[in-house]
Amino acid sequence: MPDAIPKGLMRGRPAPRLGPRPLGLHLANQLSILLNSRAGLPPLKAGSPPWNLPAQPAAAQLRDELAGVDPEGFAAALDAESRRRIATFLHGIRLYRAHPYRRPPSEAPVAWRAGTTKVLRYGGEGGAPVLLVPSLVNRAYILDLSERRSLARYLAGRGLRPYLVDWDEPGEVEAGYDLGDYIARLESALEAVAAENRRGVGVVGYCMGGLLALALAARRPDKVAALALLATPWDFHAGGNHALVIRAMAPQLSAAIAAVGHLPVDVLQAFFTSVDPTLADRKYRGFAALSPRSRRAEDFVVLEDWVNDGVPLAARVATDCLFGWYGANQPACGEWRVGGTPVRPEDVRAPALVLVPEKDRLVPPQSALAIARTLPAARHRLLPVGHIGMISGRRARTLVYGPLSKWLGACCSAT
Questions:
Q1: Is residue 390 predicted with pLDDT exceeding 90?
Q2: How far apart are the two ends of the chain, measured CA to CA in Å?
Q3: How confident is the model over 7-35, as a mean pLDDT?
Q4: How many domains does the chain have?
Q5: What's the whole-number average pLDDT of the chain?
Q6: Which of 209, 152, 145, 120 is nearest to 392 (CA)?
């Protein structure tokens, strides 16, 4: 049984965290793994261990190993290992909830505000302005995660002047917004940044924010000096089964949105969990093995706090994303419209850079590469990382921050 939570971590602490979200789903997944593991025991006890395994070398080796296994001993070992893993998983969750780290308030000044949206300014005067556009689904601080893992601070340290769009949660006004309304707000933010700096603005979009950034660049080519898209989907029917899952769940999703007036955070988190159902198990068992006071443990908590700090989607935005993007694949089909006008990559005049993580399970590489083939003046790079790793991982500085800052500097210095 894992050791108890260190007492020093519990003194004078705020209320425990709620994550990992949705906790019930993660616990159910763990129970399912245990039950499914035990499901193979009856045929083993009956003396028929092959279970119609496929004709592959690994399967043949498994047949040979199981042929001489004592069923009762195997059952006992399986039960012990299942219990150990579940106990370690739960211990990892307790350690995470008790960790003393809490994100400090941002010190970046607010350069512009409208409704619940604000734009935070990084860097001093004189640098080329860069507007960072995150997703509406997650908190903006993924682009300023910590002192050591911050795209915004890195760009500022390289002589650029980043502006981070912080959407926050939908307020009373934003509750009635659709994607077009948010893009109109983004246009106003771009106008403010361009006016403050008296020059064109580089625009960087991450994930869903990349689609908003692309629409912005297509609609305001006079203000956008360069466009960088990081892990941005375009062909939502390429490279994965996300669209199939959403289409299958369309009635339930529509009912949930109608019932509460928005798409709840835990519904979104359940979708992310479905992409890799055993990820939480692997993460939290790994976390349980770390020293709670180590830098690696703090890095884990910093990122997990962001993962569990989701934002609900306004009803019309959720409908646009789930059924317009994923369901009908409107962007790739040329049918996504903002204010009645199609969003066409061909209308983007600025130089473009498309960074595609090869190990991305949320945005399959084929989906992101589709946009690189459509933008008129685009370069693209495949990166050996995942969706979140490209922004917050140990290789983010080398693979993303550095090349992106050089490219932005070169493109924006000419404006």
A1: yes
A2: 62
A3: 72
A4: 2
A5: 89
A6: 145
Residues written for the chain? 415
Full domain range(s) for residue 301? 18-98+280-307
Distance CA 190, CA 112 (A): 10
For residues 148-166, one letter each, b for 16 or more C-beta atoms within 10 angstroms of the residue's C-beta and e for the rest, the string is ebbbbbbbbebebbbbbbb
179: nearest Cα among 39, 323, 279? 323
For the segment 123-170, what is each residue's pLDDT rounded down to a tens digit?
888 899 999 999 999 999 999 999 989 999 999 999 999 999 999 999
Phi, psi dihedrals of residue 292, rounded to the nearest 5°: -60, -25
pLDDT of residue 54 exceeding 70, the answer is: no
| Spatial distance between the Cα atoms of 233 and 352, rounded to a whole number of angstroms | 15
3-state secondary structure of 118: strand
Distances (CA, A) of 247 to 176, 237, 241, 276, 334: 24, 11, 10, 19, 20
pLDDT digits (tens, 9 = 90+) for 210-267: 999 999 999 999 999 999 999 999 999 998 778 888 888 888 889 989 999 999 999 8
Dihedrals φ, ψ of 338, to 5°?
-125, 120
Q: In this structure, what CATH number is given to the domain that contains residue 362?
A: 3.40.50.1820
Looking at the fold, whether 33 and 173 belong to one and the same domain comes out as no
pTM of the model: 0.90
Q: Quick one: which of 304, 39, 374 has its CA closest to 146?
A: 304
Answer whether 149's CB lies under 8 Å from 392's CB. Answer: yes
Residue 128 sits in the same domain as residue 235: yes
Q: Please state the φ and ψ torsions of residue 159, each to the nearest 5 degrees.
A: 90, 5
